[in-house]
Each structure stands twice: as structure tokens, then as C-alpha cells.
């Protein structure tokens, strides 16, 4: 008896069963852990930057490399997302020296997405 929807009428991954989605459903397959909720939030912030170049650097990294970071590195990543996109771009490309706290993480991100580190000028 499938009713079909087109356009934006249906969201989700095509799950069948009741119409319950997201929060409020206890013990359902749609419930996610706090860790997964955090990763989802960080992925969204990574893809929705103020600068397209940073979307294209942080978005793919968040999709494939973010889950491998330990909790301390995730905290650092989250703090890094609060930085200005123009600065982040210069840091990740090596055009400008990054703050010491972000250097290793930005090198990891750059390598993950294929940006070869350049010697910093400062």
C-alpha cells in the first residue's frame, strides 16, 4: 500500500514501521548516542562554514576522519571550528603559521584531504 512522496515530503533513510523519528522514541533504532550526536553536530558545522574553501576542506575530513579522533582531539577540533575561516584557511594550507595548539590537528586535516604542508614563513 505504499503511498509515494516526492520532493521534500519524506526525510530519513527509508526506514519502515511507525512514523516516529528522532528524539522521544526510547529504545528505537533511530536513537543515537551522545557521541554520535556530537559527531553529527561537528559534521554539520564543518560543512556549513562561512567560506566555501573551508567547507571543501573540513567537510570531507569530518565525513571520513572525525570519528577516528579521540575525545581530547574532538575537543580541540570543536575549539578550532570557532576560529575565523580566513585564518583557518591560511593555517591549513601553510600560508601562515597556525597557533601551536592547532598545528598538529591542522597538519592531520590537511594531509587527510590532500593538502601538502608548506614550510611556514614565521
Question: How does this model look, in words?
Answer:
The chain is mainly α and 122 residues long. The protein has a domain at 34-112: DNA polymerase, domain 1, CATH 1.10.150.250. The chain is 49% helix and 0% strand. The protein contains 5 helices and no strands. The chain has helices at residues 34-47, 52-64, 71-81, 85-93, 100-112. Helix 1 packs antiparallel against helix 2 and helix 4 (85-93) packs across helix 5 (100-112). The longest helix has 14 residues, at 34-47. It is elongated. Mean pLDDT is 80; it is low at 1-26. This is FAD assembly factor SdhE. Pfam families: Sdh5 (PF03937). Residues 9-27 have a biased composition (Gly residues).
The CATH superfamily title of the domain at 34-112: Flavinator of succinate dehydrogenase
CATH architecture of the domain at 34-112: Orthogonal Bundle
Rg of Cα set: 18 Å
The termini sit apart by: 67 Å
Class computed from helices, strands and strand pairing: mainly alpha
The helical percent reads: 40-55%
Number of beta-strand segments = 0
**What is the element string, with H for helices and E for strands?**
HHHHH
Strand composition percent: under 5%
The level-1 CATH class of the domain at 34-112:
Mainly Alpha
Largest sheet: none
Average predicted local confidence, pLDDT:
80
Keywords: Chaperone
Protein name: FAD assembly factor SdhE
InterPro entries: SDH, SDH_sf
Biased composition (Gly residues): 9-27
